[in-house]
Amino acid sequence: MAPKSINSDDLNNLYAQEPNRKFLNLPIAPLVGIYYLGERRYDTAKLNRKKKAVELKFDNKIKATNRVRKIANLQFRKQKKTEKFNNRLENGNTIMQWGEPVAVFDSLKVEESKSKFNAYLFSQGYFTNTVSARSITIQKVVNVTYRVNPGEPYKIDSIHYQISDSTVNALLVKNNGASYLKRGERYIDDNFSKERERIDLLLKDNGYYDFSRQYIEFEIDTSYLSNRKVSVVLIIRDPAYRVHHKQFFVDSVNFNINAPNPLNRKRQYSKYRNVNYTYWQKEYSFKILGQRVFVNQNNTYSRNNTLNTQRQLANLDAFKFVNINYDTSGGLFIANIFTSPLDRYEWSNEIGVNVTQGYPGPFYNLNFKKRNIFRGLENFDLNARIGIEGVASTSNPIKVLASQEASINASLTFPQFIWPLSEKTQNKAARFNPKTRITTGFAYTDRPEYRRSASNLSATYNWQNKQNSYYSLSIANLSIINSKIILPEFQEFLDLQDQLGNRSLSNSFKPSFVSSILFSFTWNPDNYGNAERSSNFLRTSVETGGNIFNLIDPQPLVDQGLAYFKYVRLNVDMRRITVLNKHLVVAKRFNGGMAYSFNKDKSLPYEKFFFAGGSNSIRAWRPRRLGPGSFKPVLSADPDKDGLFNYQIEQPAEILLEGSIELRQKLFGFISGAVFVDAGNVWTRVERKTPDEIQGTSKFAFDRFYKEIGVGTGFGVRFDFSFLILRLDAGIKVYDPARDKVERFVLDNLKFFGPFGTNREPVIYNIGIGYPF
C-alpha cells in the first residue's frame, strides 16, 4: 500500500520478484506452460556440440584462405553464429524465451524489494520512511503485502549560488525561472539531475562549448532536521587551467559537400552569407542551403543552433548524412559541416495483394524520385499504381465483380514557401522546415456497373514546430470527377436509393467540380505509440469548400453539366496510450466530426461525408455500414418479422461521434493479444425517409443521440514482425441502434459464422496493418 503522494507505478517497477504474468488478470499463466514446453526440447550438451562444430568449421575456412576481406567476413559470420548459440545457452531456446519459468517465492527477494522501496522513497524526499512486508501462504501460493509509510517529506527551504564566474552567475540568475529546484517544494532527487542537465544545456547554448556537467555540484544541508527543511547550495567550479569559463565565438563556417569527384575535377570554393562552401561542381543552391544553416560567423556557439542546422539540412532529403564538428586548433573556433549527397535518381517497385472491403486482388506500385531537379533542392516524385480487386455488386449482393483501378500522381516539393516573401522572412521560416508541395494526379476505376475518373490538382504548405507540432495548409484542392453508368440495373438501383432518402450515393455519380481549402494540425509530443512511456496524439482539420465561388460565377460549370459544392467540414481525432507495465498498455481514442453544406440541396462531395464501421472504426460493423442514427438499412418487405437488413450499402452522414478503448498485452514472442470496446455512430442533418414511413431516425438530436450509439466489443491478436504489425480482430455487436428498442441488445444472438443481416448476428472479422489507433 502506498500513499497518494507516491507514484504507485514507480513502486510497481521496483519489485525484485514478481508473479507470473496472467492473461488479462485471469487466473491463467500461459507463459509458464510455453516455457516448459520449450524446456522439454532444450539440450545444453547438444547446443555446445553444435557451437563447437560451427566454430571449428569457420576456423578451418579461415585457415584455408589468405584473402584479408574473406577472413574478415568469415570472422564476422563466426561471431554472429556464436552469439546466437551463447544467447540460447544463457536464456534458453526460442520457445523458452517466449515463455517464463514458474515464479518460486524467495524471502531474500522480499528484503531486496524493501531496500529498493526505501531507496526510492528517500530519493523522493521521504528521508524517515519505513517499509514492512507480510507473507501469507495458502496452498503453496504466497501472497506478499508491502506496507509503505513514507513519513513527512523534506522540503527545500533555501537555494544559494556559489559561482565565482560573474558572467555565468548572471546568466543563471536571469534564467532562474526555468529551474527545477523551487523553494517550498518537496525534495526530489531526480530534480537535481534535471537541473544539472538544464544548466549544462543553458551554458552550451550561450557559447560555453567546453562546459561539462562535472563542474556542477550540489551541497545538501539537512541541519534543520526538526523542521524537515533542506538547504541547497549550487556550486559551479572553474576549470583547473583557467580562472573562468570561456565563451566561444564562431570564427568561420565551412560547408563541405563530399560527393564523389566527377571527371577528376579540382575542388571549388565559394562564399555565400559568410559560409565557405567547398565542392567538386556546383549542384545545390547556396541560398537554400544557407537558410538551413543557423551557425553564424561571429556569433557565440550554440548547441541548439548546431542541432537545428543538422536537423533542417537532413529534412531536405538531399543528404545521406549531415555531421557538424568544431575545430579549436590554432586558437580559432571553426564550424565544419560535412554532408554526403543521396543518389539523384531513386526507383522502387512494390507487388502485393490488397484486401479492403471486398475480396483479395493483386496490385503493382511504381515509385520514382528525382532529387534536386532544378538544382534548388526541389524533389520530384512520381507514383503509379494498378490493381484488380473482387468486390460485391452494389445492386446485387450475391454477385462478385472484378474492379480494375489505376492511378498516377506527380508531385513537386520545394524546400521553402513559394510566396512573395522577403529573403529575411524566408530565412526565419527555415527553422520550421517549410515545404511547398504541388501535386497533380489522375485516378480511374472500371467496374462492370460503372466507370469513374477523377483528376486533381493541389498546392500545400507544410511546416513544423519543436519536432512535435505539424501544420499543413492546402490553399487549393481542385478535383473534376466524371462517372459513366454502364448497367441499366445500376441506374435503377441509384434511383431506388434516392427514393429511400440516400441521395448522397447518387450524387457521387454526377459529374462534379470540387474545390476546397484545408488546414490541419497534428500534435505528437511523446512519439505516440512508443512502448516505453505513455503518449498522446491529436489531429484536427478544418476544410472549407467552394471558396473560389465567392470570387467567380459557378454558372459556366453548371452549363458544362458539372455540379459544385459549398461546405465546411471539421474533424478532431484524439488518442492516448497509457503504459501500465512493459507488457500491458491501454489505448483510448475519440474521433468526432461535423460537416455542413451551403448548397440548396444540402449535399456534400461523397468523399467529404463521415462513415462509421470497419477495422479502424467500430469493428463490430462492416466498413462504412453503421448508421445513420437508428435508421434501418431495409432489404426485405417485412424487416420486423425476419430482421433482414441490407449491409451492402455504405451509409454516409454529416456528423460523426466514435470512441474506443483497447487493452493490449504481450503474450509471447512477437504475438500480442487485445480486447476492445468500440462505440459510436454517424447522423444526418436532414431526416432520411422511405416513400411511406420513417424507418428509424437518421437525424441528429441532442435528446436522443446517446440512445443511438452503436456498441461493439471483441478480441484480436497482433503479429509484430518488426517491419510491420499484422492485426486480426473479431468484432461482436453488443448494442445495435437499428433494431427495435426491445431488441437492440444483440449479444445473446452471437454467431461466429453466418450471413449478414439475419437475426443471428455474425462476428465481423477484420484484417489490418498496424494498430487501429
From TrEMBL:
GO CC, alphabetical: outer membrane
Q: Keywords for this entry?
A: Cell outer membrane, Membrane, Signal, Transmembrane
Q: Where mainly found?
A: membrane
Q: Where is the Bacterial surface antigen (D15) domain?
A: 350-745
Q: Which Pfam families match?
A: Omp85 (PF01103), POTRA (PF07244)
Its localization reads:
Membrane
Q: Give start and end of each POTRA domain.
A: 103-151
- Which domain of life does the UniProt lineage start with? Bacteria
User: What is the name of the protein in this document?
Assistant: Uncharacterized protein
From what organism does this protein derive? Chryseotalea sanaruensis
